[in-house]
Write a structure and sequence with these properties.
Distance between the termini: 56 Å
Shape: globular
Largest sheet: none
Low-confidence stretches: 190-199, 410-431
CATH architecture: Up-down Bundle
Length: about 425
């Protein structure tokens, strides 16, 4: 069997598994991403390890094995996913939510980030690996929180609005932290993850910071000055889907420039491109085109591949279970205490602050993206990658349960309430 036939079969299996498992998860009130990761774990070395079956083994020749090709496709998937995340970032909304949301986001980065790094160091992990573990813990995915709050009729409350705003700010801060960690960890040389000899000099630090700064300045300037004008001109070309082609190419080029020239993660470049295109007059047209491309094939490959790479068995055999349990506790407590305490300092009551902190627990797809980048860059090993995947799964599972506990008075919304909530959010986006 040729590699092409193997890939046709494997990708078909991945897409079917993602859609079926996502549908099952939704039926139980869980986000689709949870089902997709679980399906990947079942198909991967944790249970069946299908990539080791003879059917998907390398047939020799000039092509890499199907598993390696799927890894590359997953990397492209996360680039598109982060572009979409950038498109959904509401800069105007971030300005409106005020000091409470910004303060909560700061606490949600500081507490779990420092806590996770200190715990990893205490368990004997190298410095950069420990710092990266803390970086993973700073992530927040608000999709499951927003869904649960809508079910409780609490999405438009003061706490609900703060959670949504803080999560967006948290993502921006987390991406900045990730980019800095990636730049310095990779710049530290072969010893950055394993604790062996290696280091980074003062001039290298300055040069990395200069390149990062230049990338953001040049990338932002080019996007703000040219994207709207170029989109209008290119959309008129007499070819099929010229605007969408321009958007995809730009996202890929920004991702390339971010890592090659700016020394930041490629996903940061894609995210920046998405934020910039969201400021153009063509946002709605781009959304309508990019979502089918991203979520039909690329995102399922990315999430299933997370499970295919993770190995839950190694958590037991490598003796990492105590560390996994502690890191899960830190992941949950760090968000509750960090976001909650900073919200209280900004003027919220204890009860309101607890609700904000609880709503920020879930790591979801954001945590998986950060974890996947660490593995691909060689900062963490596969055993630690598996621990982080389990942490993401647990925090994603417990968030809706805890939200229902801290919002005891919530009632399921009527159809009119849901319509008004969605209309309100759309009006805010269009302001």
């Amino acid at each position: 069997m040729t590699v092409v036939l193997q890939l046709l079969l494997l990708i078909s299996l991945i897409i079917i598994a993602a859609k079926v498992s996502g549908s099952i998860a939704n039926r139980f009130g869980m986000p689709a991403v949870l089902g997709e990761i679980s399906a990947g774990l079942i198909l991967g070395p944790t249970v069946f390890n299908i990539l080791e079956y003879p059917l998907f083994q390398s047939q020799g020749g000039h092509f890499p094995p199907p598993a390696e090709i799927v890894n590359v496709l997953a990397e492209l998937g996360v680039i598109l996913l982060m572009f979409v995340a950038g498109m959904e970032t509401d800069l105007a909304g971030m300005k409106k939510v005020g000091k409470v949301a910004f303060s909560s986001a700061m606490g949600g980065v500081l507490f779990p980030g420092v806590g996770g790094a200190l715990v990893a160091l205490a368990f004997g992990f190298p410095v950069w690996e420990s710092v990266f573990i803390g970086t993973v813990l700073t992530a927040t995915s608000v999709s499951i929180t927003a869904q649960t709050l809508m079910e409780l009729g609490s999405l438009r409350t003061k706490e609900g609005s703060t959670i949504l705003g803080a999560a967006v700010i948290d993502d921006v801060l987390g991406i900045i932290v990730l980019s800095i960690v990636i730049a310095f960890a990779v710049g530290a040389g072969p010893g950055h993850g394993g604790g062996e000899a290696g280091g980074i000099g003062g001039m290298q630090v300055v040069w990395i910071l200069v390149r990062m700064t230049l990338f953001f300045i040049v990338g932002w300037f080019l996007g703000r000055k040219t994207f709207d004008w170029l989109s209008e001109k290119i959309a008129r070309l007499p070819v099929s889907q010229p605007l969408l082609a321009f958007v995809v190419v730009t996202a890929f080029l920004y991702a390339f420039a971010a890592e090659h020239f700016g020394k930041v993660a490629a996903i940061t470049g894609a995210y920046l491109a998405g934020v910039l295109f969201a400021q153009t007059r063509f946002k709605q047209r781009i959304d309508e085109g990019i979502h089918p491309i991203t979520y039909t094939v690329w995102v399922p490959i990315f999430f299933i591949n997370i499970g295919l790479q993770a190995n839950g068995r190694e958590i037991w055999t490598s003796g990492l279970m105590p560390f996994a349990l502690v890191i899960i506790v830190v992941a949950i407590a760090g968000k509750v205490l960090g976001c909650g305490s900073f919200a209280m300092m900004a003027g919220f009551s204890a009860k309101e602050s607890l609700r904000v902190g609880t709503g920020m627990i879930s790591r979801g797809e954001v945590g998986l993206i950060v974890t996947g980048v660490g593995l691909s860059q060689g900062i963490i090993e596969i055993e630690l990658f598996s621990v982080m995947v389990v942490m993401v799964l647990v925090t994603t599972l417990v968030t809706p349960l805890l939200l229902r506990f801290v919002f005891p008075g919530g009632k399921p919304p009527t159809d009119k309430d849901v319509y008004l909530s969605v209309s309100h959010l759309e009006m805010e986006k269009n302001d």
